[in-house]
Specification:
The chain folds into 3 domains: 66 residues, Archaeosine Trna-guanine Transglycosylase, Chain: A, domain 4, CATH 2.30.130.10; 110 residues, Transcription Regulator spoIIAA; 190 residues, Rossmann fold (3-Layer(aba) Sandwich), CATH 3.40.50. Helix content is 29%, strand content 29%. Bound molecules: S-adenosyl-L-homocysteine.
Length: 401
């Protein structure tokens, strides 16, 4: 017997929020449900006048109980609906990249209408990353849809840590599983603005690379000529290879992970065809960046500070703002005369204004003259349509003394 549609009634406040387009309905906003809901089934939300308000994916194990797929007039969510949604999502990327770039985000979760789902392309490898178990029951359907529209050699499944256990137990899916095609010759090589990078698609952070920093990397390339560059929290040296191509005299990658630094070395090796990269002195330092920046006396002309999120939850917000200010103070103290600071944050719980102000406070308290060159936020393949999605912010400061 086909179960009755899951129908929910929600609080007046939540109704206003959902109507305005916010993609999350929290568990404590639901005051009536016609039955118990299952992971991944469609939940239909009704307004106070008993009219259709929205439809989304139900997740009984997450505080975000429903991730909204559609709000407005009633819609049937069938194969045709998914096809249209995918076509719209892909159309938004159509003119973004030329042949020099074959690593980018094809689907960016909520802000693209696919709550909790990310799809990245690394050349002919697609990486599908799920942040909610709600997609697992419809994975075959999604896979069929993707293969129909996007040509690729393989599709790799990645799962956020919190859903790995239910995925294995209930759906026999695991992180790093190949959903289609052959196992890649790890790691996968792709191109970004003509620079080759490796991506560890099977077990690397995110989906294997930080595609979201592409615009900032390109910006750093334009600022690096003749400079002694420090890339702190370097990961696989993305900023560094760009700095080297832009003519940096030396680049130091600083990261706590030996694995990341090995990858940074390979990324430099992959780009020796660029004379500027071949001429650049590259070194790696494995250390805690906070400690190293505080204690090491070396000076640099350009410093990139792009730490991991310092506020994993809302309660850590104030501490994180403080930590950003301290970290950037350490960084500024290591900048030579006329040095440039490129300071990033990927904490969604810290707003752009809060972060930029923290970095500026650090700059002011250094007593040095400085000016703001620019700020950058989300690149177009990583849209952010609501507050909680706005995690990425970078500020560029130039010191005149
Ligand atoms: N800037 C990178 C992404 C940074 S991800 C890019 O654009 O590709 C964060 C990195 O910080 C990871 O590589 C992680 O190993 C490193 N990391 C985390 N804590 C650290 C610490 N205390 N000191 C140095 N590196 C750290």
């Amino acid at each position: 017997m086909i179960p009755k549609t899951l129908r929910l009634r929600i609080t007046a406040t939540a109704e206003t929020i959902v109507r305005s387009g916010h993609p999350w309905l929290f568990a404590d906003s639901i005051h009536e449900s016609n039955r118990v809901g299952q992971t991944g089934e469609l939940a239909v939300i009704y307004d106070r006048k008993d009219k259709f308000l929205a439809v989304g994916l139900f997740d009984p194990d997450s505080p975000i109980r429903v991730r909204i797929l559609h709000v407005g007039k009633p819609q049937t969510i069938d194969a045709a609906w998914w096809q249209i949604r995918l076509a719209q999502t892909l159309a938004r990327r159509e003119k973004l990249f030329d042949a020099q770039t074959n690593g980018f985000r094809l689907i960016h979760g909520e802000s693209d209408g696919w709550p909790g789902l990310v799809l990245d392309r690394y050349d002919s490898t697609l990486v599908l990353k799920l942040y909610t178990a709600a997609w697992l029951s419809r994975l075959d359907e999604i896979l069929f849809l993707l293969q129909e529209k996007i040509s690729c050699e393989r599709i790799v499944l990645r799962l956020s840590r919190n859903i790995q256990s239910p995925a294995e137990k209930q759906f026999q899916r695991r992180d790093g599983q190949i959903l289609f095609g052959s196992i890649p010759n790890v790691p996968v090589i792709f191109s970004e603005n003509g620079i080759c990078f490796e991506a560890d698609v099977l077990c690397g952070q995110k989906t294997g690379f930080f595609l979201d920093q592409r615009e900032n990397r390109a910006e750093v390339e334009t600022l690096s000529r003749g400079k002694k560059v420090l890339n702190a929290f370097s990961f696989s040296g993305g900023f560094s290879v760009y700095a080297a191509r832009g003519g940096a005299s030396s680049v130091t990658d600083l990261d706590i992970s030996a694995h990341a630094l090995e990858s940074a070395k390979r990324n430099f090796a992959l780009n020796q065809n660029f004379p500027t990269v071949a001429a650049c002195k590259h070194e790696t330092v494995q250390a805690d960046a906070f400690e190293w920046l505080e204690k090491n006396p070396a000076k640099f002309d350009l410093i990139v500070l792009d730490p991991p999120s310092l506020a994993k939850r809302a309660s850590e917000r104030e501490g994180a703002i403080h930590a950003y200010e301290n970290l950037n103070s350490f960084g500024i103290a290591k900048l030579s005369r006329d040095g440039i600071l490129v300071a990033g944050s990927c904490s969604a719980h810290v707003s752009a204004t809060e972060f930029f102000e923290a970095v500026q406070r650090a700059a002011k308290s250094s007593g040095r003259k400085f000016s703001e060159l620019k700020t950058l936020q989300h690149p177009p393949d990583h849209p952010a349509t609501f507050k909680e999605a706005q995690y990425l912010k970078v500020i560029y400061l130039k010191f005149a003394s």
